[in-house]
Give the backbone structure.
Amino acid sequence: MENSTQDSHLRSETLVTYDSPHTLYAMSISSSPHNRIALGSFLEEFTNRVDVVSFDEQTLTLKRNPNLSFDHPYPPTKLMFHPNPLGSGKSNDILASSGDYLRLWEVKENCVEPISLLNNSKSSEFCAPLTSFDWNEVEPRRIGTSSVDTTCTIWDVERGVVETQLIAHDKEVHDIAWGEAGVFASVSADGSVRIFDLRDKEHSTIIYESPHPDTPLLRLAWNKQDLRYMATILMDSNKVVILDIRSPTMPVAELERHRGSVNAIGWAPLSCRHICSGGDDGQALIWELPTVAGPSGIDPMSMFTASSEINQLQWSAAKPDWIAIAFANKMQLLKV
Amino acid sequence: MHPKASKTGNSLKLRRGAWGSDEDALLRKCIEKYGEGKWHLVPHRAGLNRCRKSCRLRWLNYLRPTIKRGEFGEDEVDLMMRLHKLLGNRWSLIAGRLPGRTANDVKNYWNTNVQKKLTTISYHGQKEVVQGEELNNRKQASSCATTHVVVKPLPRTLSKGTSVPCYFNPNSHMHSPSPQEIIYNKIVKNDNNNNSYNMTINKTPSAATPLPDQDGIDWWKNLFEEFGIHGQEEGSLEGVLTASSSGLENLGAQRGLMTDESSAPATEAADLIEEGGQSCWSDIWDLLNSDYN
């Protein structure tokens, strides 16, 4: 830890800020005792960076370990730590990243080493960019990736082989989320949310389609506490659409209090009724879903305003009273 | 329809075959004036003795001013081949990535120029898949290059405005229908009077698309077992850890938020709204705001 640098400022009981040298986009919080946060740069060039900072909840500080920073080809479209680090059989954090390929990294005490590069392209030099991925919590050997080539690929990351690749949509797939061991859902530029069951690959089930045909859906968050619910966001829309898979095609709620496009959503890790959203209006809003929506819509229960557009948001599973947001070159941890 | 059309007289007989330059001009003029779309009106508006489909295709594939003409460039062919490897014969998707090229042109080019080559020359040989200069461990990487079958599941859509019907299974204490009932009732367009979903499935063995076996639908059940659709697990969700400080007490919410009024009992609705929670969260967040400012 001697080469750690003290990077945080603006400390208070409820807010910790980290200043990065780069614009930030991808972000993940580890569930391991290391309390690490991985941050991916968003630079419009080939070489990008991933930094790993550790969060000390006692002193409310964020420290970057320069030994744990590494180059990443293209900006990572998503970063995610192993969802079940205790069950991973490794003492070190495992980090996955998507971009040109899916990659796994082992975050050791003083260095990061690549474990594998997963490329599903049969032919040599071409691989359609990956837009996102999700690591299956129940079955951690499974990672599902989504791609602009309209497919989703399910990897067995332990064996390093493709379990299956599905043409999931008619247009680019923007995001993917696991529901349970063999069930995932994806959203696409074709405007649909589709559920897939790996035990029945004959069919997918469309459970939502954006109201204006072909309005792309960008992100999907499946409520891990109550799998009936998922949330999605539309391109250039201030709405968070809440879906109940029991009443397909009709959203159960639309949260419309952002004053700009919504960019990121995250369900509370321990509550089935709370969701946080962040958007171009610089606001992070926490919503409590009521049982019945009033005529005037649903208001957020709390609000935080950042100094610029919020691009990313992660609700810490290990420390559920902290939410991390990323805007411009800052990452902030907010205590809820 | 054609036999009828030809019977009623020559004037109604639509012209077929190659388009003349005069016809092209008429179609162009029409679309300049009215814009693209509403193809059923186009033959009349343009004064063309052609069917609407013919007009549409003529416009989209030949007359549209954005269409790029001429030989395919090296880069275009390269991209076409890469995309074809990924997407197969999905010409409109491929054309969507080649600015100005139509699906039709791409398909024609492929069939006349590329396909032949591919059958004679093994395409690109087998190059090393991963350059991987950043990788120490290459055995994992190379194992990924093995071929696999790409599956295309058929999407099925459930009818719009589906409200969840309330089926009761006499053998259980379910209050609300399990999702597989809903889905299967919708999919097989089953008579609403049929209350047993088991019967529903058994009755339709010859549906056009094969119904998944029992395995295939299990996940819906699995999904729902956890949160006590049978009413056993109320309030037993784990992880109420932060509840005391943050108003999350109401996790027990068994039938949950936003239940569709028409379909599910809203009896517990009022209980679920937590009074204290909101102010607590807001206070904390107000604090945050002042801290930040």
Notes: Chain A is about 0% helix and 55% strand. Chain A touches chain B through 94 residues (CB under 8 Å).
